[in-house]
Design a protein that fits this description.
By secondary structure, this protein is α+β, with helices and mostly antiparallel strands. It is built from 26 helices and 16 strands. Helices cover 41% and strands 12% of the residues.
């Protein structure tokens, strides 16, 4: 096959065995890779009701057909598992260079199963696979681990690892690769820690063959030009994803103080331009083959919190909002240091910022006492936050409660706390306020992995006519409305993004709406890479819909139902300020929209994919598992 390595590597940690399985062209074209392959393996190999932290679960590192090639944005891939945070489908994506190394070693993916008797790390050097003792690495931070492995193995190895948070079972622990790239959501690092795997180190030397290199480069050049010349693309290169902070604040949808507000008085102090003006951005960093270089690298030799090491990159928007507006902090250096702590200890910044914000409000409401924490913990107190993050990672004192995540914290603190807890399916909500983007709330609710902001376009994308005619996005909608036709737009956007996440391609390089779009170039690149010369948009969308339904079917098989596709109570309360003043999610209107969404998906009104839907998508094995 072209574009694929052609096999998957399986490692059984319990027995020490490893083997490969071939990737057929039929499977490749049916699912593309990444999400599709991962969901397929979960359905095939993980028994119904398996303990996410037990030996029967799988931890799947999965690439796609464009990984290993020159396509901008192709440095991105996924870690997939049964989530310990939700109990359902778990997926986390990251960029960097680790994924290209895995492909060059000759594998489209790595599957870890079983549980090691003691801490280990896996070394992959082309066809050679070793499981080595990692007891000397256990307890080390991410950077310490990577430096130790590169010193022992060679600087040309790429490393994915967990920090101490994964070892102690923090439910939002991340798998970190290339030091500063985080596959952070749904507790994938928690599963890696439960399997007692500290790291995976990879070096590969095998080239990836594509069908038509010249045509591929022609399409790449045009795709890259469109993405680079886009206003959002230019801003990403200049100041990174945090460049949108002020714009969201003006729209009244910048998450503030545990979602109690949508405007933050110190927003101008934490926008990407503020990092730039204060000289905190030392340089820019790009994932493999990328032309945007959106990562801000912060180098701060001295701050009142400690040194900010450029090896850990710098905070993306989610971290800036999570440690800034959500906690009432307006100091960029504090946000950068908090981001570094999470990267070092191996924790999701969305989850970490969310549980701290929840704890701050719980203290205000009298549901926690200062004696429970051991020190004052108030809005804007950055020093307290820096003290608390390592406690969460070590599960020390109050950190043990926060390490369980927002849902379980609320269950421990009582009914009043449940009204303050912002999550979907047990996954903390990403830093995008759905009271000003109601279609986003629908995607949050229906996502098989919980409240992910990466599954669909956000509502402002449809505030202009003919935003994306290739996908049928021709009508303009207000960001506060959710009529049936907009529900159809959300569904189609999810299908498209699901296919993008199966290629796997960074969405920052994908322009499906706006003045100039590059969908045709992405399809052209896929055809030139694979040799599937008749692969078109209809098939691309069908792959996305198939993989979305497969991930949903796994979640449903494990117990997910309509009750889990719920709006957090906080979002049914009106925002108190800004241009989104008074806006809230109307439960009755949302329920009607969810009904219409289920109908469009071919699911029952309880959110279960129907047999005929799955069979029409060529998911007969999944249909048999779900319906008998």
């Amino acid at each position: 096959m072209f574009a694929y390595a052609g096999k998957l590597l399986f490692v059984d940690l319990s027995s020490g065995r490893h083997w490969t399985e071939p990737v057929s062209e039929e499977l490749a074209r049916k699912h593309l890779g990444s999400r599709g392959f991962g969901a397929h393996l979960l359905m095939r190999d993980v028994p119904r009701g398996a303990d996410p932290l037990g030996p029967d679960n799988r931890l799947i590192f999965m690439t796609g057909p464009l990984v290993g090639g020159p396509t901008p944005g192709s440095g991105r891939s996924a870690v997939i598992t049964k989530s310990p945070a939700t109990g359902y489908y778990g997926e986390a994506l990251s960029g960097g260079r680790f994924w290209h190394a895995l492909k060059y070693a000759g594998y489209d993916g790595l599957v870890l199963q079983g549980t090691a008797e003691r801490p280990v790390y896996v070394v992959i050097t082309d066809e050679t696979v070793e499981i080595r003792d990692a007891r000397s690495l256990w307890g080390k931070t991410v950077l310490e681990t990577e430096e130790a492995l590169k010193s022992a193995l060679g600087a040309d190895y790429r490393v994915a690892s967990i920090g101490p948070a994964g070892e102690t079972g923090v439910l939002f622990a991340a798998v970190m690769n290339d030091t500063d790239r985080a596959a952070a959501r749904t507790g994938v690092g928690t599963v890696m820690g439960a399997k007692r795997v500290k790291a995976v180190a990879v070096r590969g030397t095998q080239p990836i063959k594509v069908f038509d290199p010249a045509e591929m480069m022609t399409q790449i050049t045009e795709m890259s030009r469109i993405a680079r010349n886009d206003a959002w693309g230019k801003n990403l290169h200049r100041v990174g994803t945090s460049g949108g902070v002020v714009g969201l604040n003006k729209m009244g949808i910048l998450p503030t103080r545990n979602w109690q507000d949508g405007t933050f008085e110190l927003a101008p102090a934490i926008v990407g331009d503020a990092f730039l003006e204060k000289g905190l951005i030392d340089t820019k960093r790009a994932c493999m083959a990328c032309t945007l270089a959106c990562t801000n690298v912060i180098n701060l030799p001295r701050s009142e919190y400690g040194r900010v090491n450029p090896a850990y990159g710098g905070p993306e928007y989610e971290s800036v909002a999570g440690f800034g507006s959500q906690l009432g902090i307006g100091d960029p250096s504090a946000i950068a240091y908090a981001n570094q702590l999470c990267n070092a200890w191996g924790m999701d910044t969305i989850g970490t910022g969310s549980v701290i914000a929840f704890a701050m409000e719980a203290l205000e409401a009298g549901l926690l006492k200062e004696s429970d924490v051991g020190f004052p913990l108030r809005w804007g107190d950055a020093h307290a936050v820096m003290r608390l993050i390592p406690m969460i990672a070590r599960r020390e004192g109050i950190g043990d409660l926060l390490a369980r995540g927002t849902k379980r914290m609320a269950e421990a603190l009582g009914p009043k706390a449940t009204e303050m807890a912002v999550h979907v399916k047990g996954l903390e909500v990403a830093m995008h306020e759905p009271r000003g983007k109601v279609g986003l709330m629908l995607s949050y609710a229906a996502s098989p992995r919980g409240a992910s902001h990466m599954e669909a376009l956000h509502d402002p994308a449809w505030m202009r006519e003919n935003a994306g005619p290739e996908l049928g996005f021709v009508k303009a909608f207000d960001r506060f409305e959710l009529p049936d036709e907009k529900v159809a737009y959300v569904k189609r956007s999810e299908d498209f993004r699901s296919a993008v996440n199966s290629l796997c391609l960074c969405v920052f390089l994908v322009k499906e709406v706006g003045g100039e779009r590059n969908i045709n170039q992405i399809l052209g690149i896929t055809r030139a890479a694979t040799g599937w010369t008749d692969f078109d948009l209809d098939e691309f969308l069908a792959v996305g819909e198939r993989n979305w339904n497969l991930a949903r079917t796994f979640a449903v098989r494990e117990g997910c139902r309509r009750r889990d596709d719920a709006v957090p109570p906080r979002f049914t309360k009106p925002l108190p300020s800004g241009t989104t003043l008074g806006k809230a999610i109307n439960p009755e209107a949302f329920a009607r929209a969810l009904d219409h969404y289920y109908d469009r998906r071919g699911w029952t009104r309880d959110g279960v994919p129907k047999r005929e839907t799955l069979e029409a998508l060529d998911l007969r094995d999944a249909a048999a598992q779900l319906h008998g």
